[in-house]
């Protein structure tokens, strides 16, 4: 069974409690059967008397309210762009609603036209209310138990944002409906590429729009805290890129703000997309390795030594990662943050660290244009975990031959495991000790695991915060701060 509704735009009529799906200035009414034509979810070309006024009405008022209050994916950014010879392209509204009827009429001439395709079916009423120069009504058929649509806004449209857009748009019941970046050319090209309807060049404008459920913050590191805090104040869910902030104080503030707002908050530690690390976590918690004694983890990249991802000397997207004034914490904050989460999620939390950071000369006077290349290139961390184990964590951007290599070994008194993401993200190797005899290493199929993007959307739908949340991000940030302090003071720092 499906319920039929007609959505009507009126000039002065206030929203009435005719349905739970009521928007300001719009009334959703039960529709009687047998009085209008069925369009289905196919793309249709619709004509009207005054295309400019109609487009303006739909663009600026009707679709915006539909997006915001009825939670419908709408194509408003394409409305004006598709006007050609008096035609208007209406995209299908997927999954939650099917377009049943569309009526546009010139009020001054009292002309009204309904549009139906071949084999049009009369299934619900067309209810048209008068507005200056126009009458507009759209009827929808909605399943009894419609799939909730989660609307995502992306802030920051650099390289990594493309992954976010692709991943979120691939999730059933989720759509990216807004993009925001201070670079207007970049954000418009990004929105066109991913068919994102709403474009903004300031966070304030995006938040004023408000037609979204959640934000994914893909801005440079120094903007993570201020932007996420502004979004949290509006009561929106937040997925923030790593590191959560530039320091523990800001990360803790973000954690408190998220808790106060009562919204879903997660940090995009993307290597948790590998099922092997979750299996390792489970094996350690089950006691399969016995008492954890020693942990070794490395994260090697080579883009300073070779053009693995392009020439860093001419790429702003890489140069900012080498400059502290541009908000970079160096390799420690950029990939060391991943390494610490990847290693300690299964092995256990860090109790203390001793760290050495190193910045190597890369250019005359250590400058390329506006970028002063003072951020660390290599980090060596020794740590004691809360469970008493010792750990060694190493990362560098000078590891020739390693585009993006991550390995983890965890040793216990009853067994060991190792992960090599260059080989597989869904397998690990396990070695058990029986009667003090070492068995051979065996491969363990770890299956599949939901991506961070899927975990975030599922958390919103269920109202239960998955991991890693802001509190986890803050704990990792506290370890990063301790590493910087250790390097500066050349001593072990307790967390």
What does this structure look like?
This protein has 495 residues and is α+β, with helices and mostly antiparallel strands. It folds into three domains: 2-143, no CATH class; 150-269, 3-Layer(aba) Sandwich (Rossmann fold); 275-448, Dihydrodipicolinate Reductase, domain 2. Helix content is 28%, strand content 29%. It has helices at residues 51-69, 76-79, 159-169, 184-194, 203-209, 224-233, 248-261, 275-285, 316-319, 330-347, 452-462, 470-489, and strands spanning 2-9, 26-30, 44-47, 87-90, 98-106, 111-114, 130-131, 134-143, 150-155, 174-180, 198-200, 214-217, 237-240, 265-267, 292-301, 350-358, 367-368, 371-372, 378-385, 390-396, 404-412, 415-420, 427-434, 437-438, 442-445, 493-494. Strands 15, 16, 19, 20, 21, 22, 23, 24, 25 and 26 form a ten-stranded mixed β-sheet that branches. Strand 22 and strand 23 form a beta hairpin. It starts with a strand and ends with a strand.
Architecture of the largest domain, according to CATH? 2-Layer Sandwich
Please, how many helices? 12
Percent range for β-strand residues? 25-35%
Helix content: 25-40%
Outline the secondary-structure elements.
Blueprint lengths: L1 E8 L16 E5 L13 E4 L3 H19 L6 H4 L7 E4 L7 E9 L4 E4 L15 E2 L2 E10 L6 E6 L3 H11 L4 E7 L3 H11 L3 E3 L2 H7 L4 E4 L6 H10 L3 E4 L7 H14 L3 E3 L7 H11 L6 E10 L14 H4 L10 H18 L2 E9 L8 E2 L2 E2 L5 E8 L4 E7 L7 E9 L2 E6 L6 E8 L2 E2 L3 E4 L6 H11 L7 H20 L3 E2 L1
Parallel strand pairs: 9-10, 9-12, 10-11, 12-13, 13-14, 15-20
Antiparallel strand pairs: 1-2, 1-8, 3-4, 5-6, 5-8, 7-8, 15-21, 16-19, 16-26, 17-18, 19-20, 21-22, 22-23, 23-24, 23-25
Helix pairs in contact: 6-7, 7-12, 8-10, 10-12
């Amino acid at each position: 069974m499906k319920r039929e509704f007609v959505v009507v735009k009126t000039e002065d009529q206030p929203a009435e409690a005719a349905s739970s799906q009521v928007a300001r200035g719009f009334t959703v009414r039960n529709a009687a059967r047998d009085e209008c034509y069925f369009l289905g979810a196919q793309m249709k070309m619709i004509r009207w008397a005054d295309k400019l006024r109609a487009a303006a009405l739909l663009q600026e008022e009707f679709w915006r309210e539909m997006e915001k209050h009825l939670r419908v994916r709408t194509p408003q950014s394409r409305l004006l762009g598709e006007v050609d010879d008096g035609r208007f392209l209406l995209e299908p509204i997927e999954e939650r609603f099917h377009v049943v009827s569309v009526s546009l009429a010139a009020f001054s001439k009292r002309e009204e036209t309904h549009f139906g395709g071949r084999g049009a079916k009369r299934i619900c009423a067309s209810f048209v209310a008068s507005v200056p120069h126009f009458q507009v009504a759209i009827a929808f058929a909605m399943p009894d138990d419609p799939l909730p649509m989660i609307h995502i806004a992306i802030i920051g449209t650099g390289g990594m944002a493309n992954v976010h857009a692709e991943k979120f748009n691939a999730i059933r019941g989720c759509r990216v409906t807004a993009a925001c970046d201070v670079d207007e050319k970049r954000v418009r090209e990004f929105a066109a590429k991913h068919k994102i309807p709403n474009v903004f060049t300031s966070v304030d404008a995006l938040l004023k729009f408000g037609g979204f459920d959640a934000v994914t913050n893909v801005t440079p590191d120094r903007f993570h805290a201020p932007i996420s805090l502004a979004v949290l104040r509006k009561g929106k869910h937040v997925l923030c890129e790593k590191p959560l902030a530039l320091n523990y104080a800001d990360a803790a503030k973000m954690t408190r703000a998220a808790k106060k707002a009562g919204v879903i908050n997660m940090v995009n530690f993307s290597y948790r997309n590998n099922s092997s690390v979750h299996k390792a976590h489970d094996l350690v918690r089950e006691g399969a390795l016995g008492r954890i004694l020693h942990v070794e983890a490395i994260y090697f990249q080579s883009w300073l030594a070779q053009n693995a991802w392009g020439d860093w000397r001419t790429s702003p997207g890489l140069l900012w990662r080498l400059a502290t004034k541009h908000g970079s914490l160096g390799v420690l904050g950029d990939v060391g943050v991943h390494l610490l989460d990847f290693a300690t999620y299964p092995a256990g939390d860090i109790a203390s660290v001793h760290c050495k950071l190193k910045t190597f000369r890369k250019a005359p006077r250590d400058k390329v244009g506006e970028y002063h290349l003072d951020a660390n290139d290599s980090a060596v961390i020794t740590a004691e975990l809360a469970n008493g184990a010792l750990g060694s964590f190493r990362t560098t951007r000078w590891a020739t031959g390693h585009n993006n290599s991550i390995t983890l070994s965890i040793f216990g008194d009853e067994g060991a495991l190792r992960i090599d993401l260059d080989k597989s993200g869904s397998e690990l190797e396990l070695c058990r000790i029986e009667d003090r005899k070492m068995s051979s290493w065996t491969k363990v199929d770890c299956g599949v695991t939901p991506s961070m993007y899927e975990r975030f959307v599922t958390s919103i739908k269920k109202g239960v915060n998955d991991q890693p949340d802001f509190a986890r991000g803050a704990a990792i940030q506290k370890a990063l701060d301790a590493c910087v302090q250790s390097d500066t003071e050349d001593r072990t720092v307790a967390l």
